Amino acid sequence: MTEQLVKVVVHKRQLQGDDVVVLDLIPADGSGLPTFEAGAHVDLHVAPGLVRQYSLCGDPAERAVYRLGVLKDPASRGGSNAVHETLLEGAEVIIGAPRNLFPLAPEARRSILVGGGIGITPMIAMAYALHARGADFELHYCGRSRRRSAFLEELASSPFASRVFTHFDDEAAGQRLDPDAVLGRAEPGVHLYTCGPTGFMDWIIGEAAQRGYPDEQIHREYFQVEVDASGSGFEVVAARSGKTVQVAQGQSILDALADVGIKVEKSCEQGVCGTCLCDVLEGEPDHRDVYLTDEEKAAGDQILVCCSRSRSQTLVLDI
Fold first, then answer.
1. Are 243 and 260 in contact (CB under 8 A)?
2. Could you tell me which residues come within 8 angstroms of residue 228 by beta carbon, excluding any fewer than 6 positions away?
3. How many C-beta neighbours within 10 Å does residue 268 have?
4. Nearest partner of 286 among 221, 233, 220, 222, judged by Cα
5. In what order do the strands lie in the sheet with 277-282?
6. Kind and range of the H or E run holding 15
7. Which pLDDT score, from 0 to 100, does residue 255 have?
8. Cα gap 139→126, rounded to integer Å
9. Tens digit of each residue's pLDDT (9 = 90 or more) over 103-112
10. Per residue in 106-160, pLDDT tens?
């Protein structure tokens, strides 16, 4: 399936907090932008061969502008640095149509939104959407310091400002996020959404699990994860291509396939976005992604070839 691509222009650029650039994107041809739902992201084609995913953090009811917030990551693999250096006002860039892997649960009677650092971006769009439908929700924004945090002025002046709570590491202990007060005990219809650094998310998710939240009421989106490439080598058979390749220890299936001329579409290369998802015909995948659900991993019929490996000596893929 061919991705729908849209050429946009950086209409407005603003630096906020500590190394966060906020971009307002408008269509280059003056037409309307595709609609999006809260939680959606776009693929930003930063440079040839360099595609990164960024959450849409504006109001989903706003049809004329897409808003992105991009942190300049010291450990950047090229994406955030390129955004900060090249996407100035007036610059044109290609994006993919919005995709939503982090949707709001339509059945929720109450929503708890918890964003850590730049993980606040999808939460802002969720808050706009929940406010518009008159839903019960709270938005909790956690960060190292107020000075380093973006979007504070927008949240303070938003129509849902009374539902926004900030928690900063360098301020009084009493304002830091208290899981007992914020999460309470699990109740039917109460859904938790979290996004941010992996350690922060693991803490929030763990606290929710301890309080009885079932997995279907915990929603998460990872921006970045540490890829585990350990494990011995194995064989991959590309059934449709008629090629067999040996995946070496420390090598990804994606790279091994590329070595024999099989190009699989890729983006994050960290098991987050799902772009490189392939069907498994035979063998047992060793899943190391955060994209597939536990049920999908247990089924064993799909694999993300950028990071996952094989438990069996041979893995047959439908590529």
1. yes
2. 288, 307
3. 26
4. 233
5. 243-247, 234-238, 314-317, 277-282, 302-304
6. strand 5-16
7. 93
8. 9
9. 999 999 999 9
10. 999 999 999 999 999 999 999 999 999 999 999 999 999 999 999 999 999 999 9
Domains of the chain and any CATH numbers: 5-96 (2.40.30.10), 110-222 (3.40.50.80), 234-317 (3.10.20.30)
Place of tokens 């009084």: 172
Could you tell me which residues come within 8 angstroms of residue 209 by beta carbon, excluding any fewer than 6 positions away? 215, 218
- Joined tokens for residue 87: 């996407």
Helix (H, G, I), strand (E, B) or coil at 167: strand
Confidence at 310, pLDDT banded by 50, 70, 90? very high
Any idea of the CA torsion for 37, 193, 145, 271, to the nearest 10 degrees? Answer: -80
Average confidence (pLDDT) over 172-184: 96
Q: What local confidence, expressed as pLDDT, does residue 267 receive?
A: 77
